[in-house]
Design brief:
Elements lengths: L2 E2 L4 E2 L1 E6 L3 H8 L4 E6 L3 H11 L2 E6 H16 L5 E6 L4 H10 L3 E3 L5 H12 L7 H19 L2 H11 L4 H8 L1
Parallel strand pairs: 3-4, 3-5, 5-6, 6-7
Antiparallel strand pairs: 1-2
Amino acid sequence: MVVETEEHAIVSTVVVLGLPSAFVQSLRQVANLRVVESDGDVETALAKCFQYAPCVLMAREQFILSAGPASLSELTRSESNIQIVAVGSADNGVVADLLHLGCAGVLSVATPPKDLGRAIGAVASGELWFPRRVLSSAIRTLLSTVTEKRLTQREKEILHLIGQGLNNREIAERLG
């Protein structure tokens, strides 16, 4: 959503909850970004998200992990137009959990303003902002799960034999 002001067009609104002041100052350095701080009260932050939607909610990973899937799905449902970005750890296990919970991205508190702008722009436009390794692992897991659920063991054996060039009669003889 673009909001016109006297100074410049605001491209994205970010609601911040419980983030270090130095990080919030870095956010304020990003051009065309409205930063709305919450006082640390979760309910107030959520109300601000709905008030400023579409927006990006940026909060510490601990808050997001403690909020649970039900609260996050309420926030990230498609009609609410709210994206969630976690700020914190570089631990791939935690980052994967955040991805599975519906977060749109994860950033370090040390992320420079230039990269903050790129990340927020990407997330606001519907992209994910995660380390490549985490996304690759999630996609591999998803693909292996989908493949395993679609074919029975017997079907996999038949496909393997077809791949070897056997015809129907030869497959039937091999499988008994």
